[in-house]
Write a structure and sequence with these properties.
The chain has 408 residues and is an alpha/beta fold. The protein has 17 helices and 16 strands.
Length: 408
């Protein structure tokens, strides 16, 4: 008991001293603007940006935070109460011009950091968004410009526009390019992006706050009938899309009566939804899942299964994987770029993509060896703690301060 209290005191003292150190370093550092899609828009990058800003806000209570966003949810400016961030809609989804960004920054007298959260599905394959950032640099409206590339394309992807965009990251007005995985980092290096400009910062992890709730309470809050579940509950959360590998999963679980597959998320394909609803092993919850609902869903589950198949030549990481590993449940996933962190930290829990026979064997093994699976996941759980959002936010803040000081 005394040792636990001492550890808590030590941990608290360390956090206090470290936050004080950060405060001293960021003194005179007053404004950060993220260029990104943002909730309530249904988008993984939008959720990522909000979680990053929430963690940054806890480290920097007095810094002004701006989101320069799409006009999908609103055409009027508002303040996000969770992050105390000023959200300013300035452009359309997949727009062709982003010059409202430098215009707005000029109106407010500039910022310290402009940070683009880039995804090809949001900003397209043209360099239009980079042209707007170049104007920000030319007019000295920011001390430093950072780009996070959520997806990196290989030459075999068949998307020449993406390769042109990635080549443009060598322009002098970009101070740093953040990626989330070593595959992304090395691919950019191979394409000629200056290695000293590439910074690998992992995707953040949220430790699930709902793990202490009973299954009855969790099912009730999710609107699910617990009586409809039998055996082990395996969840596959997130958008219902063909690349999630549902067809392989349904083949794998055919005839297995000692488990229930809980599929939850917004359906992007009506035929896929029908296929899932017709499966006797499956419970389908067709709705967009907020972060809290997704965490409750994973807390309700015994394990998470991610039988993904990736698009050829596209390197990304999975936000769902980070929510799952922050819930400390066994995870079975395919050996694909999106799940490289699972392959690195728990290779025993991975299978060949597209192989329903191998997936079935792994599921049967999990049913019979749940405790062993938890042991195999230990390194993954340590990684989850090491990539907690406050740690990831500190890495961002350290980079921001370093870049801003370099420009002074």
């Amino acid at each position: 008991m005394g040792k636990t209290i001492q550890l808590k005191r030590t941990s608290f003292l360390y956090r206090f001293q470290y936050n004080l150190y950060l405060w001293v370093r960021v003194k005179g550092f007053s404004r950060i603007a993220l260029v990104t899609r943002y909730p309530p828009v249904h988008c993984g990058v939008a959720e990522y940006s909000r979680m990053l800003l929430k963690a940054l806000r806890s480290l920097m209570p007095t810094v002004e935070l701006f989101v320069l966003s799409t006009d999908e949810a609103s055409s009027s400016e508002y303040v996000d109460p969770l992050t105390k961030t000023r959200v300013v809609p300035l452009y359309g989804y997949r727009d062709t011009s982003y010059y409202a960004i430098p215009s707005f920054l000029e109106e407010i007298g500039g910022v310290d950091i402009v940070h683009l959260q880039h995804e090809y599905g949001i900003y397209g394959y043209s360099v239009s968004i980079l042209s707007a950032l170049e104007e920000v640099w030319e007019k000295k409206l920011a001390k430093a410009i950072v780009v996070t590339l959520h997806t990196v394309h290989h030459p075999y992807s068949g998307r020449p526009g993406a390769l042109e965009f990635q080549s443009a990251l060598n322009n002098s007005f970009i101070d740093a390019v953040i990626v989330h995985s070593k595959l992304q980092e090395f691919e950019l290096q191979m394409q000629g992006v200056n290695p000293s400009r590439i910074i690998r910062i992992p995707h953040g992890t949220l430790i699930n706050p709902y793990l202490g709730l009973s299954r009855i309470k969790l099912a009730e809050e999710l609107g699910l009938d617990l009586a409809s579940f039998r055996g082990m509950i395996l969840s596959i959360p997130g958008f219902m899309r063909p690349d999630k590998g549902f067809d392989i999963l349904l083949e794998a679980v055919g005839g297995l009566k000692s488990l229930t597959i809980l599929v939850a998320g917004e359906a992007k394909d009506p035929r896929l939804k029908e296929l899932l609803e017709d499966s006797p092993n499956t419970v389908v919850l067709d709705q967009y899942l907020s972060k809290s609902k997704m965490l409750k869903l994973i807390a309700l589950s015994d394990a998470v299964v991610l039988p993904y198949r990736d698009r050829p030549g596209a390197y990304a990481v999975s936000g769902v994987l980070h929510l799952a590993m922050g819930s400390f449940k066994p995870i079975i996933g395919t050996r694909v770029p999106r799940l490289i962190e699972l392959y690195d930290n728990a290779p025993q829990m991975t299978i060949t993509p597209g192989n329903s026979v191998e997936l079935r064997k792994k599921l049967v093994w999990l049913l019979e060896n749940y405790e062993h699976a938890m042991m195999y996941m230990e390194k993954m759980y340590s990684y989850a703690v090491g990539t907690e959002w406050h740690t990831v936010a500190r890495k961002h803040l350290q980079l921001y301060v370093k870049l801003a000081k370099k420009q002074q």
